[in-house]
Amino acid sequence: MEENTTNEEDQQEAARLQARLRQQQVTNNDVSSQEYQRLPNVSIDKGKHKYVLISAKTPSGERQHFVVSKKGAAYHRDAAEPFVEALERCGYKSIDIQGGGRIHFDTQNKTINVYGYSYGFGLADHALSKSVIVQDPRFQDYDVTWSNEGY
Predict the structure, then answer these.
(1) How far is CA 20 from the centre of its chain?
(2) pTM to 2 decimals?
(3) Is position 126 annotated as part of the catalytic site?
């Protein structure tokens, strides 16, 4: 698998996405509970991919964290953007991409390794990402580890 790194255009797109999300936090309107649909906190594809840690608020003000990877994402933004759009459609507010890295999800060995960083979004809190993953019942029998090493 080719290990793409970011480029200037991707960094600009990541910055635009973050600026748009910050602006929405200022101009958010209330969302009725009828429009709200809860999304899973962990959405990761099998294999080794770029991942992002995202936080968002439900209409009731509850803060949720999401660990998201996407197979084939050349840049962290490619993993973040579709999930951010899903959060917006489902009624979440105050969406914030808190950083990124890499995730290796090995279903055969039942391991998940979180590591590295994102040029576009910065270093995610991998300990928090691990916590989000281990709280998901789908991954209760997985060995989940993290490290700030590597890219």
Answers:
(1) 17
(2) 0.82
(3) no
- The enclosing domain of 128 has a CATH number of 3.50.20.20
Q: Which residues, other chains included, contact 71 with Cβ-Cβ below 8 Å and sequence gap of 6+?
A: 45, 46, 47, 49
Distance CA 93, CA 76 (A): 21
Domain residue limits at 99:
8-27+37-146
Q: Is there a domain that residue 79 lies in?
A: yes
pLDDT bucket at 1, cuts 50 / 70 / 90? very low
Whether 10 contacts 50, CB under 8 Å: no
On the question of pLDDT at 4 being above 90, the answer is no
Q: Specify if 106 maps to a domain.
A: yes
pLDDT digits (tens, 9 = 90+) for 59-92: 889 999 999 999 999 999 999 999 999 999 999 9
Known binding residue 50? Answer is yes
> Of the residues 65, 76, 104, 126, which is catalytic?
76
Strands 42-43 and 143-146: unpaired
Phi, psi of 18 (to 5 degrees): -65, -40
